[in-house]
Design a protein that fits this description.
326 residues; mainly alpha; ABC transporter involved in vitamin B12 uptake, BtuC; 14 helices; globular
Length: 326
């Protein structure tokens, strides 16, 4: 009887420590704390505003999660520069004209995807570590951003793009619908497609995956391509949120934040495990935490320390979860 009781407690604890459940619970806790500290923090309008800000990180982290799940120390440090790239190229081509929106979007997606393919090619064919390859590519993209702008604002979002991103349907901003749509597509890709099955196999054991027929080379290259494409798309949508681009480093904040969101969401940096459900709520949790710390008027260095402590605590708890399930 005692053993059954102990097993039941362990099962309940393991369920609570499941990344998606844990991160979602932390979101609720942060909302409750924020409401106590600053009444109105958890008001529906305020929650929607925080979700809007979190959506761009959530889209970037979707691509980052694919690269991390693929294993082999997969990580993409060029995503922040690609966010800026998507906004700058989109604005420069659109020039606030609705009729140029589709061409601008296609151009951003194609060019971003090509950058990702170059990242994947460098990693696969030349053996360059992903950290180094994507960092170098990020520097090239940043230089391209500076060249395009010449240090001054260029173009801007068309009225239609603005409407699609910040326009409201039933009181909900359009960007949240786009984020949910992208989340559904990523979840289907990971859990209901051959690509997802191959990606998890690749991240778990590359040698075994190759022997079982997984096309390792194209898988890695395409995964980096999808990651870059999503980063560029996030930048394009961010342009619709801002209206115009004045800051050529506007996407830099998403580079490490996307990695943190992936880890907080329960995806192991070693690859082969995890998924986007936890990452989705991880992006929301990070935004809630930042909003709470700003409400508390905490300085940037204090916010950075808090983020680091929370990240380490979650990693420790996920480690305990693995032991409980053994």
């Amino acid at each position: 009887m005692k053993n059954n009781c102990s097993a039941g407690i362990q099962q309940r604890l393991a369920w609570f420590l499941e990344p998606t459940v844990l991160v979602f619970s932390l979101c609720l806790v942060l909302l409750a704390i924020g409401q106590v500290v600053s009444p109105g923090f958890a008001a529906p309008r305020q929650i929607i505003n925080m979700l809007v800000v979190a959506s761009f990180l959530g889209i970037v982290a979707a691509g980052q999660s694919l690269v991390v799940i693929g294993g082999k120390n997969g990580i993409d440090l060029s995503v922040g520069n690609l966010v800026t790239f998507g906004a700058i190229v989109g604005g420069a081509m659109m020039r606030q004209q609705d009729q140029r929106l589709v061409l601008a979007l296609v151009t951003v997606l194609v060019l971003s995807f090509l950058v990702g393919l170059l990242n994947g090619t460098g990693v696969v064919f030349f053996g360059i570590p992903p950290l180094v390859m994507t960092l170098g590519m990020g520097i090239i993209v940043a230089a391209t951003n500076r060249f395009i702008t010449g240090g001054v604002p260029v173009g801007g979002a068309s009225p239609l793009l603005r409407s699609l991103v910040v326009g409201r349907l039933g009181g909900v901003p359009g960007i949240l619908f786009w984020w949910v749509l992208i989340a559904v597509l990523v979840l289907v890709l990971l859990h209901n497609s051959r690509y997802g099955m191959n990606l998890y196999a690749l991240g778990s054991n590359e040698t075994a995956a190759r022997l079982s027929g997984v096309p390792v080379v194209p898988m890695r290259i395409i995964t980096f391509g999808i990651c870059s494409l999503l980063a560029g798309l996030a930048g394009f949508l961010y342009l619709g949120y801002l209206g115009s681009v004045y800051n050529i480093t506007l996407g830099d904040k998403y580079t490490l934040a996307s990695v943190v969101a992936v880890v907080v969401g329960g995806t192991a940096l070693t690859g082969g495990t995890g998924g986007y459900r936890g990452v989705f709520f991880g992006a929301i949790m990070l935004q809630l935490l930042e909003s709470l710390l700003i409400t508390l008027r905490m300085e940037q260095f204090g916010r950075n320390i808090t983020f680091g402590v929370v990240l380490l605590l979650l990693i420790f708890m996920y480690g305990r979860d693995k032991k409980l399930r053994m």
